[in-house]
Amino acid sequence: MASEEKFSVEKPEADWRRELAPEAYQVLRSHGTEPAGTSPLNAEKRAGVFHCAGCGKELFDSGSKYESGSGWPSFYQPKPGAVGTSDDQSHFMRRTEVHCADCGGHLGHVFPDGPQPTGLRYCMNGVALKFEPKKP
Ligand SMILES: [Zn+2]
C-alpha cells in the first residue's frame, strides 16, 4: 500500500491470514483480483447491504449495485465515508485503487465509466464483500 494512511481496524498480518478465507486474504491483504465471473455476488439482486469481508464495515447498499457486464460486482456509489482510494500504477496501468476505510482491505478499483448519477464504476472483488440481505 502506497500511503501512510492509518486505519481504525489494524491487525498483525498473521491474524488476517488466520481469520480470512485464503481467497479473501489474497484480495484484501495482498491486492489480488478474483477471476472475472466467479463471484456469486455478481447475480445477487436482493435488497441488502454489502459489508467488508475483513472487518464487517457497511460499504455498499444494494440500491447502488448495477450490472456492468465486467464479471465483477459493480456499484456506482459507496456508502458515505465507507471507502478510501489510492493511486495504483501497477501492471503498467494507472488506476484508482479502492479500499475499506476502516481496515484498509483492498476491495477493487474505481473507473470513470459508470452510470449516472455518479458516472463511477466501483469494480469490486466479490470475495472482499459479504452480503447481508435486508430483514423482511
Ligand atoms: Zn474493512
How would you describe what is shown here?
- The strands form 2 sheets. This protein has a 6-stranded antiparallel β-sheet with strand order 3-4-8-7-6-5, with no helix packed on it. Strands 2-1-9 form a 3-stranded antiparallel β-sheet, with no helix packed on it.
- The model has no long low-confidence stretch (mean pLDDT 95).
- The chain has 136 residues and is mostly beta strands.
- A hairpin with a 6-residue loop joins strand 5 and strand 6.
- Helix content is 10%, strand content 29%.
- It is built from 2 helices and 9 strands, in the order H-H-E-E-E-E-E-E-E-E-E.
- The longest helix has 7 residues, at 13-19.
- It is globular.
- It has helices at 13-19, 22-28; strands spanning 48-52, 58-61, 65-66, 74-75, 83-88, 95-100, 106-111, 121-124, 129-133.
- The structure holds zinc ion (ZN).
- Zinc ion (ZN) binds next to loops.
